[in-house]
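User: Structure please.
Assistant: Input sequence and predicted structure:
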Amino acid sequence: MTHSAGLHTAGRGLTRAEAAARLVADGPNDLPAPPRVRWWRRLAAEMFHFFALLFWVAGALAFVAGLPQLGIAVFAGFLYVTPIAELLDQAPPSLPGFLVALLAIPAVLAADAIHKSWRRRER
C-alpha cells in the first residue's frame, strides 16, 4: 500500500467506490480561487512598501537639504510611476501562460486498474 500525503492509496489507484466515498467526504478536488483584493488596497501596498518608503524619505531629505525642485521631482515621479506599475501588475497574462491555459492538459486517473483521461472542468 502506497502512502501519498496520508491518502492511503494502493498502487493501482482508487476503486470507484473509494473515489465516490472520498468525493462525498472531502468534496471535489478543486483549488479555491485566490482572494480578490480591492484596487485601493493594491495601490496603497504599492505606495507604502519598503522601497517605496525609501522614495518618500529621499523626497523629504531633498526638501530638508534645501532642494525643493529635487523633492518635487522625486515625489512627482513616484506618484506618476506607482499607478502605472499597479496597472502593469494587473495586465493580462503573458502569451505562453495564456496558451497553456487554453490547452487544458488532460488528466489521467487510475481507478479500478483502468486508466481514464479527461480534460479539466471549465468554471
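The radius of gyration is 26 Å.
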